[in-house]
Amino acid sequence: MTAALRRQLKWCTMGIEMNPLDNLKNFIRPFVHMYNTRIMNSYLTYELEERYSSVLDQQHIPGKSVIDLAMKAYLDENPGSTGIPAPFKSAAMAQIKLFVFAGHDTTSTATVFTFHLLSKHPEVLQKVREEHDAVLGPVSNVPSLLASKPQLLNQLTYTLAAIKEALRIYPTVSTIRSGQRDLHLVSPNGHSFPTESCMIWGDHYSNHHNPHVWNRPEDYLPERWLCTEEDSLYPPKHAWRPFERGPRNCIGQELALTEIKLILALTIREFDVADAYAEFDTARGNTGNMKVNGQRAYMVRIGGGGHPANGYPCRVRCLE
Ligand code: HEM
């Protein structure tokens, strides 16, 4: 399933190719898509059938996954149903593929960059750990405590600020739209730009690092998410866009932030993470300037989104 999804993404054009030669792939693309779709759908059909039986079987308590809940809702509305109807199956498969595509890589990259920035800012790391001590108590109790009181994650306000600030410095994706006839972009000084036949790229990285928009844009300052409007660090309206804004913003943003908070709650007091770029570069004989903007863990585009350079070589140390 994973391999087929990855292959499928490589072959998608989404109508926004910068390299016109990519369009040459058009000829075989439909066959590749059919092949990958068949692999993904057969795996998902198997999973859906399994979930369906587990929901139908009163002895078995369904999980809280989106798909379990959707099936339960469907069965509540259609009590006589004896199998998964084709339209439901097809909609469910499309949604699962979209969620897996949009949700896994973005969240894992944001988690890695959060760990990275915490490791580079011991004073922030210390505050995060102190907050976990205060809200969650002893490390060994955290899994059972959060299983019974998951709402405690909402009290990790400084941790959330640290994650939001990491997403500002390293927004893992950007957004792109096709221009349209009669759609003009108007700059603050009144210049109007037609968009027909253009791609419009919402470049979050540049926006998030723009000194005309942000005060001290290169500094990792979770405090900016906790200060009041009078403070010069206060984030300008609509400037933070890692999940985009408006009607097509990220449907999974709350889930992503909760996941990252949960990962930190379960690990940050037990492990130290430190990048191992120096070791990595020595082993590969990399000389010369390997930094961008002073950062070795600069962001590169792999597949659809941004990732830390060279897959983020690092060392993880278990604390006493
Ligand atoms: C840190 C993690 C994440 C980031 C940075 C992120 C970012 C984004 C952005 C920028 C968009 C808008 C794309 C556009 O308008 O072109 C988007 C859309 C979307 N995201 Fe996320 N996302 C994250 C996690 C997730 C998760 C965990 C899920 C679901 C499990 C998810 C599901 C979606 C879906 C379904 C859309 C399309 C919404 C629509 O078009 O109406 N995302 N995401």
TrEMBL record:
InterPro entries cross-referenced by the UniProt entry: Cyt_P450, Cyt_P450_E_grp-I, Cyt_P450_sf, Cytochrome_P450_monoxygenase
Cofactor(s) of this protein: heme
Pathway note: Secondary metabolite biosynthesis
Classification via SUPFAM superfamilies: Cytochrome P450
Positions that bind heme: 250
Keyword Metal-binding (UniProt): yes
Molecular function (Gene Ontology), one example: iron ion binding
Pfam families: p450
Keywords: Heme, Iron, Metal-binding, Monooxygenase, Oxidoreductase
Listed Gene3D superfamilies: Cytochrome P450
Protein name (Swiss-Prot/TrEMBL): Cytochrome P450
Organism the protein comes from: Didymosphaeria variabile
